[in-house]
């Protein structure tokens, strides 16, 4: 069960890497603007904010990947702690998005589903 949780955590990290690309690299592109429902002017106005936010997502993904690698190479306690820190923060951010912007519920669920599953599977696996 822990292994399944760690694999799902890797998927969450990959998703957050993709979010990093959208927010920090392609924010003003037509495709990314469509994903976030923004006009060109809105994208230009929020470009710096999105750039910074994208790096938060990247760092959460990196922490998670480092944790998974550590767990799989024998440093289980350190690895799982890092995984919980990474996916827990991803999940918390999804909850904040859901609570603060109900119209972004789909994005919040997309952002939070994998971290939630990773957290539950890993926790159950550790408890067994």
Strand count, sense and barrel status of the largest sheet are: none
SSE class: mainly alpha
- Give the strand tally: 0
Number of domains: 1
Beta-strand percent range: under 5%
Shape descriptor reads: elongated
Question: Main attributes?
Answer:
elongated; 6 helices; 128 residues; mainly alpha; 0% strand
Description:
- This protein has 128 residues and is mostly helical.
- It has one domain.
- Helix content is 87%, strand content 0%.
- The protein is built from six helices and no strands.
- Helix 1 packs antiparallel against helix 4, helix 1 packs antiparallel against helix 6 and helix 5 packs antiparallel against helix 6.
- It is elongated and about 50 Å long.
- The mean pLDDT is 97.
